[in-house]
Amino acid sequence: MIFFKLLNYDTKYGIIRRWYVFLITIIFAFAQCRSCHGIIESLQTSNMMRDNGTVMDYILYSFQGMCVYIFSPRNLFTIPLYWFIFQVGISYIIAYYTENDLRHYGRNILMACKSRYGWWFSKVAVCICSVLIYYAITVGWITLMALSCGATLSLQVSNDFVLSAFSYTLLYMNSSDVVWISLLLPFLTTLSVCLIQVASSLVISPVISFAAVCSMYVLSAYYTSPWLIGNYTMWQRSSYYIEGGISPDSGLFLSVMIIFVAVISGLYVVRTKDVF
User: Fold this and answer.
1) How do residues 185-201 score in pLDDT, each as one tens digit?
2) What is the pTM of this model?
3) 3-state helix, strand, coil in the chain (%, to 5)
């Protein structure tokens, strides 16, 4: 009962009253869909594409990240801006709430409910809900914008679009694998990053935790390494798509382990932390 009261409080003040922070998803979806639609129109003009594509085409384009970067004096390294903004956006949304709540109102709440475990698990639940809402709104807006551009509501990819914008490899993948590497694994990866960020903000400042996450994403864009978890949010680096890419199975294992460590370590910190 105490947990649900705390969850109701955190949902109200951590999500509902901060609804405006999720507007970044609309900007991201609009920019990516506009760019994707421009490519489709160009292909149609060149008679290289006969239809208006599918919703999955737009989703793939929006969440592509970047291909594997190979260091060379001739290859200029550029962070994929929209991917970076999208990932850092949710990290910024969840960055300060938990620590600020503990510093301002958390003391009184903990004294009233006398449940540190309930307080922490409520914060974990709100973090999970925030990431889920963030992705759901983004996919929802991408779907609506794709449909407004005449795209077909389907999880299948368009052969002409895929061959022109990406690689024929996608044509040999079934829809479940495409959804897994482009949406589900990135969601799980982002969630693990956000949870460890929330847990670490209780030990170090939220500013440092947020800066560390930003640095991790920059390194992930530069280095294609299975240990840099940001790589798993870019489906173009998946071993399903490109030879020598990183395995989605490794991403699943690493994400689950980080989530477990984040929840347990956060619980330990909250249980031992002097907040009075």
Assistant:
1) 999 999 999 999 999 99
2) 0.93
3) 75, 0, 25
